[in-house]
TrEMBL record:
Ranges annotated as spanning the membrane: none
Name of the protein: 3D domain-containing protein
Domain 3D intervals: 333-392
The species this protein was found in: Candidatus Enterococcus ferrettii
Alphabetically ordered keywords of this record: Coiled coil, Signal
Length: 393
């Protein structure tokens, strides 16, 4: 009875832990698909924004290059204007120097007297007028030349001021565009980083989906295996019941035959005694033996292993095993290499007890078993040790 109760308990435990995660993981897969779709849409939006930002950056760079060309051309014009101003100032200075020399000569050599003398020496009135007109023309030409040079210098100064103002505006525009370009570069870098994060999230979701799918496949296979084993157990139980029923029927027939033989020999006391002895002697061994207490049977496999310990309380672990068992509700679980110990098996680990082989691990390869404890302190106390693992069918 104890063995039967243990088998029923193990079957119910496995069925509960296997059937419940099927619906949970199905919902989890739907959520993962929905999350992946949302992230994909966000990635498409970020890619579109990145393309727009790239277009803006290219446009801004073109504007910066255009302004730089204008600045360079304007700077050349400014340098040319400066050169023309310097040349004009030089001409004005030379002209002023010539005029000053002439005035000095007039003062020193009494040129006015010679001018008057030249006028008085005119042959007639017409010659006088011509000489006076020629002198006025010469003086006017000198004055106009100086005035023209001054006006040219004034225009060049004005042009220089305008060009320098334009140059300052161009430089300011260049700095503004550089700032805008820098901001666009930062925006592009942020978008690239965000897009990379989305890509990483999609890769993580894809890996999670693969893990969930593998676990669902393992659960399905384990469920089919459990159903097959249950059918085999039911068949074996039925066959055993038939054998037991046939044995009971045979025992009843033998008891009836013995009673009949005893009744037919009651006429003789000696024969009765002999008959009773012959009936009693074979009857004893043919009584059905009392069934021995049932204990969990094994598959005959006992393996020497190295054992470590882990806990779902550690931050790096989850609450669910590879078979979907919630370790908070069913902590008596060990992690094994499925190629050595089939997942879903009931096993007995020396020093630990009976547990379900319901989990795997990247470091669990070969003859290594990782036993689960609810707390980290228990894992530390367990440490690493040699154990004997027995597979219970």
């Amino acid at each position: 009875m104890k063995g039967k109760m243990f088998g029923i308990f193990a079957t119910v435990l496995l069925s509960t832990n296997m059937l419940t995660p099927v619906f949970v993981q199905a919902e989890s897969m739907d959520k993962l698909d929905e999350k992946a779709t949302t992230i994909a849409r966000q990635s498409d939006k970020i890619s579109a924004e990145l393309q727009l930002a790239l277009n803006d950056v290219n446009k801004t760079y073109q504007e910066v290059n255009g302004i730089r060309s204008e600045i360079e051309a304007n700077q050349q014009t400014i340098e040319k204007t400066k050169s023309e101003i310097a040349e004009t100032e030089k001409n004005i200075a030379q002209r002023k120097e010539v005029i000053a020399e002439r005035m000095k000569e007039v003062q020193l050599n009494s040129t006015t007297d010679r001018t008057i003398t030249a006028l008085l020496e005119a042959k007639d009135f017409n010659d006088f007028l011509n000489r006076a007109y020629a002198m006025s023309v010469i003086q006017k030409a000198e004055k106009e030349k100086v005035t023209s040079l001054n006006e040219a210098k004034a225009k060049l100064d004005e042009l220089k001021t305008t060009q320098e103002t334009t140059q300052a505006k161009l430089v300011a525009n260049e700095e503004s565009l550089k700032t805008e370009s820098s901001q666009l570069d930062n925006k592009m870098e942020n978008l690239k980083t965000e897009l990379a994060d989305k890509k990483s999230s999609l890769e993580e979701i894809s890996q999670a989906k693969e893990v969930e799918q593998a676990r669902l496949t393992a659960e399905k296979a384990q469920k089919e295996k459990a159903e097959k084993e249950a059918k085999q157990a039911a068949k074996q139980a039925a066959e055993k019941a038939e054998v037991q029923k046939a044995a009971e029927a045979k025992a009843q027939q033998e008891q009836a035959a013995a009673a009949q033989a005893q009744q037919s020999a009651s006429s003789s006391a000696t024969s009765e005694t002999q008959t009773q002895e012959s009936v009693q002697q074979p009857a004893a061994p043919e009584q059905p033996a009392a069934p021995a207490p049932s204990t969990p049977t094994t598959s005959g496999r006992t393996i020497q292993m190295q054992s470590t310990a882990y806990s779902c309380a550690e931050s790096v672990n989850t609450f669910y095993t590879a078979l979907g068992i919630d370790l908070r509700q069913n902590p008596q679980v060990v992690a094994v290499d499925p190629s050595v110990v089939p997942l879903g098996s009931m096993v007995e680990v020396s020093g630990y007890g009976i547990a379900i082989a319901g989990d795997t691990g990247g470091a669990i390869k070969g003859n290594i078993v990782d036993v689960h404890f609810p707390t980290v302190e228990q894992c530390i106390q367990w440490g690493r040790r040699s154990v004997t693992l027995t597979i219970i069918s």
